[in-house]
Input
Amino acid sequence: MEKVKIGVLGAGAISGIYFQNLTEVFSEVEVTAVCDLFREKAQEASEKYGIPKVYGTVEEMLGDGEIEIILNLTRPNEHYATTKSALLAGKHVYSEKPLAATYEEGAELAALAKERGLLLGGAPDTFLGAGIQTCRRLIDGGLIGDVIGAEAKMVCHGHESWHPAPEFYYQCGGGPMMDMGPYYMTALVNLMGRVQSISGMTGMAFPQRVITSSPKRGAVVDVEVPTHTAGLLRFENGAIATVVTTFDVYYDKQAFLEVYGTKGTLRVPDPNCFGGSVSLLRPEDGKFKEMPLLYDYKENSRGLGVADMAKALRRGRAPRADVQQTLHVLEILTSFEKSSKEGRCVELASPYQRREAMRNMPVSGILD
Output
């Protein structure tokens, strides 16, 4: 298969693992260019990972005729504008989460990609890893019976204690639901299917945050978005899930995700990770038993979704992390606050159908 050439837009904190995996693990893609407004960051990535082209502006990169897929690693509130520019330039796009800051912007991008005949999709791709794919196989195989519901919690006190530039987590497109919620909601729809309706309540315990990490230690950040969300999701299959995401709470365990069925309960690993522990409780056992992981990609495999999009481009199939998924997840994320503001249950409009599960291939880094 001819390698798919990728241009990476953004060389910030998350880019390192993408560069590493796309240059060392996934052999059917080739990172040919990197762009960052701080050109020195792009230059540093170029030298470290052997990327031949460095660009200082988005326009320069989009004018590169060799690039087929743009990997958009810009900040969340920049995703809409940069993705739109890439689509208008005729590039396929894989974007970091979320797809956009609002559902309306996401729907516009989806329509534009369809009109132009371009692939659009994005993060998270952790659901393609060994942990959640194993859970999907257990559920689809009937090990917990018919799915009744689920519970998901992401509990922490924000990112200003460790992130070097945490301001955007508290600006438009940020907050715990928009930042960490994509991992949990993507896992849930992959395990349980389309969400039909949502009821939510949101709040903000701290109107300002003090950064305690370097290099901005002591700076004060005004909070513009909800930092605590609680809600209910009704799935199309009748199952009901409860969800909490928060940047307001001190706790010793961040991730919690369980799926409940008529014949058992499944403990799903942290959906921000590719591997992790999968445990199954059935009544005949009386306790949780750890299950073996049945798929590849147990380690941090960010870039797996990009590689899958590249293979889909060559094979003429739908990418597993495609826009119908990222748009449905975006509508879920934004509907909690909408429900809270309007005081009503919100019916979702976006369609969603689970794509084919992962397949184990003879060689790691080569997809089906």
In short: The mean pLDDT is 97.
